[in-house]
Amino acid sequence: MFKKILVPVDGSKFSDMAIEKAKEIAGALGSEIILLNVLEVSKIDYPSNPYKFSPELIENYQNESRIIASKILAVGQSLLSNMSDKVSAHAVEGNPSEVILNYANSNDIDLVIMGSNGIGGVLNLLGSVTRKVALSIKKPILIVR
After folding, report:
1. Which residue, among 109, 131, 90, 99, has the nearest Cα to 22 in the 3D structure?
2. CATH code for position 34
3. In which domain, by residue range, is 60 found?
4. N or C: which end of the chain has fewer CB within 10 A?
5. Cα separations (Å) of 48 from 40, 58, 95?
6. How many structural domains comprise the chain?
7. Neighbours of 130 (CB within 10 A)
8. How far apart are CA 99 and CA 6, in angstroms?
9. What percent of the chain has pLDDT over 70?
10. Smallest Cα–Cα separation from 144: which of 20, 48, 10, 6?
11. DSSP 11
12. Average pLDDT over every residue of 19-33
């Protein structure tokens, strides 16, 4: 039924709740869990506005983002430590909703489990990334709150 479960994670309490729900479902069904963190790394106006941010600052920001992604994925994996043989973790750069949709469609994902809100706060009843994914995905999605 649900052989592969994708759980986008951002370090928020809602993403931790999504991990817990994925653990419950995967435990019952023997599913694989894929944790996905999306690094929203951009050029931040450089070089179109070279006085705004230096290349060094941008590189430091990107490196720090990668370190944070590793930490977020490590926390997610620790929440799933008793089923580590069925858990994988990936960090991908790009637009969060686009990356989640592309990943789900390109990797034979059977179910996406997401928190209702992320670190960005609240937009109506759903976070903006969750909302975009929920409205566009063609696969089953479970939104946890």
Report:
1. 109
2. 3.40.50.620
3. 4-144
4. N
5. 19, 13, 20
6. 1
7. 28
8. 12
9. 85
10. 20
11. S
12. 97
Is the pLDDT at 44 greater than 60, yes or no? Answer: no
Cβ atoms 73, 15 nearer than 8 A: no
Structure-token pair, residue 70 = 């590793």
Amino acid at 13: K
Q: What 3-state DSSP class applies to 47?
A: coil
Contact 75, 97 (CB under 8 A): no
Asked if residues 141 and 112 have their Cβ atoms less than 8 Å apart, the reply is: yes
| Token output for 84 | 């580590």
- Look up residue 141 and give its two tokens: 């999605």
Classify each residue of 34-70 as buried b or exposed e, where b means 16 or more C-beta atoms within 10 Å of its C-beta. bbbbbbeeeeeeeeeeeeeeeeeebeeebeebeeebe
Look up residue 2 and give its two tokens.
Answer: 């649900």
Which residues 6+ apart lie within 8 Å of 96 measured at CB?
A: 8, 38, 40, 129
What is the Cα–Cα distance from 14 to 143, expressed in whole angstroms? Answer: 9
